Amino acid sequence: MPMAMVGWILSFIALFAGLALRQDMPIGGSVTLSNMLVVVALLACPMIWRERPLGISRGQRIMVALALVFASPIFLIPAA
Question: How confident is residue 52, by pLDDT bands cut at 50, 70 and 90?
Answer without folding.
Answer: low
